[in-house]
Amino acid sequence: MITHESSLENFTEQFDFVLDNYTNHEMNVNQFDNIVMGGLGGSGIGAVIAKNWFFDKCSIPIETVADYHLPKFAGKKTLVILNSYSGNTEETLQLFEEANAIGCAMIILTGGGKLKELATQNNLKTYDLKGGYQPRMTIGQGLGFISMIFGELLGVDHRPIIQDIRDYFEENRDRQKQSGEQIFNFFKNTIRKKFVIVADREYAPIAIRFTQQLQENSKLEGFVNVLPEANHNAIESYTDRLDTNFIMLYSNENPRVAARFDFLISHLELDNNTILPMQIPEYSLQAIFDVIYRLDWVSVMLANELGSDLMNVPIIMNLKGFLSDLEIV
Does the N-terminal or the C-terminal CB of the chain have fewer CB atoms within 10 Å? Predict the structure, then answer.
């Protein structure tokens, strides 16, 4: 069994798997009017991150769906990219059926299950994911493959980029884990407080990823506020000392947004709130993976400190059992 700890200790294996198994899909962005990516939970977060990363790089709209239905604009000139590690996620299977009926082009990422069967039956381009992981620990594979897929769509070879990221992790893995431990130690005395991650646009998906890991791994509450929008509403709730662990996760991409973080940190410090500033000096795929990795370690360390069950998600499984017994179609 691949544990959360071993998946992080051997994180470069996921990049190796992508580099060894990526084959060209031979599609170009100019063939399409839009791109829709579908997936849930650990299988969907890579799409959210990719949409944000390619925000100013892709000439056509990109949408993500974590639900049962495609947007109404989807049509024959829509590229649909679906990711389900289990291959049996009911929402993603519904998206497949709709995309197939409409005649969308499709690319599939999966570890097997019904989705793999459907992709094979319909002769679709499929990237098989390496098995044995918990889906939420496959971000190296999921985001790695998606970045390669988009690179090819845009005529940019992402293989050297993924290789460089892989080499960076090989050289810095111990330092990254130590950084995660420092973050864990910062919150060790306030461990049971809810976490609020305030992020800029660039790092908002990574903030979402961290809250997902907090919720599934550590069984802790996690929430995300994004600036500048949250400065127009949520900031008014920041009064007195709050029962909250704040993480400020932001880049240098927009100086005016960075200035907003300076103000917010100073405001929260007036009431001695628990605040960890994380200003990331660059915004790149390597930096994205680096922050994800460090915060994944934090969620694992928090879980172990609390005695939480890292490997199992019993309430989610109970929900799936409940839904399987329903006759609603």
Answer: C
